[in-house]
Every structure is written in C-alpha cells, then in structure tokens.
Amino acid sequence: MNNDIQTVLIELVIQIINPNIKSKDINFDEELINYGMNSISFLRLLFAIEEKFDMEFDEMLDSSQFSTINKILTYLKEQCNC
Fold this sequence. Notes:
Layout: H1 3-16, H2 39-53, H3 69-79
C-alpha cells in the first residue's frame, strides 16, 4: 500500500474526525467511531477523500465499509488508481 495514501488518509481522519489525536496513536484496525466519527464527520471524510483522490463513491456505500482506516485503504486500493 502506498505510504502517501496512508499519510493523506491519516491527515484527513485527524482533521475531520478528531484533531486531538496524534497520528502515532492511530490503530488502523480501530473503529473510527471510537475516535469520534459520527454521521456528519463520516460524510465530510467521504467528500474529502473524493476530492483528494479525484474519485466518486458508489451511492450504495455505507459507513460499515469505511469503519476503519484499513477498510478505507482496501477500498481505495480496489476502486481507485491512487
């Protein structure tokens, strides 16, 4: 997995979900809800990812597909030419 994608994703999670956490403290398998993600921050994260990676998500996407950083990275690897 490209480290640039990971770095950008971590920055977005910190910026959008919880600016009080440090990147070194983020567990890629931890549920993002445990870091403070809610429905609004989930949508903001999706929009930010679309913008950063110049892509669009399927309308049927739900939060369970993006519940951890690893799940997001897997999705990006499969769906995006990032």
